[in-house]
Amino acid sequence: MRTVNKITSYILLTAVSTLAFSCKKDFNEVNTDPIGKSSVAANQLLAPALVNVLSANMVRNRNFNNELMQVTVDISDAEGKVFRYDVRRTWADYTWNSWYPELTNFRDMYTIANKPESLNASYKGISLITQAWVFQLLTDVYGDVPYFDANKGKDGVLEPAFDKQKDIYLDLFNKLEEANKLLAEGKTIVASGDPVYQGDVSKWRRLGNSMYLRLLLRLAGKAEVSAQVISKIKEIADTNKANYPIMENNTHTAKILWNGTNSSTALYSSPFMINVRAVDFRTPAITEFFMNNLTTWNDPRLNKDYGKNGINRLGIASGPNGFVGVPSGYDAGTSYVKQSYFYSDATTNNPTTLQTDPYTGIIMNVAEVDFILAEAAAKGWITGTGEAYYMKGIADALNYWLPDRFMSSSDPALISYVNAADIDWNNNLPTDNAAAGSQSKMEMIHLQKYYALFLVDFQQWLEYRRTAHPFLPKGTGLANGGKMPVRLNYPLVTQSTNPTSYKNAVAAQGADDINTLVWWQKP
User: Fold this and answer.
1) Are 462 and 218 in contact (CB under 8 A)?
2) How far apart are CA 47 and CA 53, in angstroms?
3) Which residues pair with 361 in a beta bridge?
4) CA-only gyration radius of the chain, Å
5) I need a labelling partner for 431 at 20 to 30 A (CA). Which of 5, 196, 343, 411 fits?
6) Other CB atoms closer than 10 Å to residue 310's CB: what's the count?
7) Which candidate, 365, 371, 375, 368, places its Cα nearest to that of 391?
8) CA gap 189, 202 in Å, rounded
9) CA distances to 98, 108, 432, 455 from 306, in Å
10) Are 268 and 195 in contact (CB under 8 A)?
């Protein structure tokens, strides 16, 4: 499925806008499609835009996030390898040029749903949630970005100003507040045009408030706003829960369920199938960090009895030495034999490969919400010690891939698993400990959250940047002084098409490189 009104870059946007102003006044009459539609409904914009954003997210999760966050290693001595923190400027273009065009469609949804003849509060609310989803990614990946004047090329705004991340976040909070109120009206939407919740508006409301918690938590350590942010977390999770429903189980998880086939033309085919060759999908090796935890825990997601045709649920292949990984960040010139990897569509003749798996299209899952609440409780912001939320997070993360295997956080099977894996909650641990390798409640929570965020866009990387958890081993071959990159550069096209705003952004935020902290990371 392809987006409506696809714009691939600011260059194209500029060209189209310039053409519109320079043509003769009979342009619209001459160029009107006599058989096409002159208008579009809100429900017709939703699915294509969702698919296109999610497709970009999944591609970059696989070849960028997973390499930085030690899920996989693209074994090679070549330069520009992300697993060595050798991040080139060209990495920035793809997501920027994928996300901004779809924001036009999400914003148009609100405009259409706000017209008297097509008024619908639910589509307005969904528009605000999807905008918050994409703008959160943009500002967390790049820092200050065009926001208030973005996507206004048709109004003549061809060089939008870059807005400060603080202002963007505060306005995203406003959007999610408004979305919660709009969706509370329960106005019906077209089920067939909603690939996430099939028309269930109440679940969209839960997604919006859960995303609100994600964004609030990201600012909770920022001194100038922490008091207000923590107060709002408490309101949503504790004191005013009835007015802020959030995700509670995997039926609330926001995902697009792909069709599960190896067809690249069928509706809702996985982006891993459309955009990644089978040989490329199985090429990266899985890391020691990712594999060692799963094997040490005897994780059921790695148990072939819970998969199909003798293959575990995550479609992980055994290497020459079994279910083991390779180290990340190793020195160039060091030879490593590829070990475990993810099966591709061409290497196994059964449905247990993530390349075609229906469940990989995750926007946000309930386990992330559980671990947000576990952190908030462990830090004393909401009631509880964190244990119940932590246990529920483990159960929900496992149940996403193995439905109903562990029924609740108090299920004897779950308790037996966490005890045997030695990942049971320890309330005597310090809340946090910055020393690498030291145990703390935050390390426990974020190690499990790391696996819950598997395949979810850039969230592992963003959470690591916020918390420095989980502790990742540091290879001796890392570039960038061994420092985890904290943002992507601005795309090159932005420098040429929006030079004044670009220069102002760099002057305000700092040098345009991968080590310049974004606002919420600064002291």
Assistant:
1) yes
2) 10
3) 256
4) 23
5) 411
6) 10
7) 371
8) 11
9) 36, 44, 35, 20
10) yes
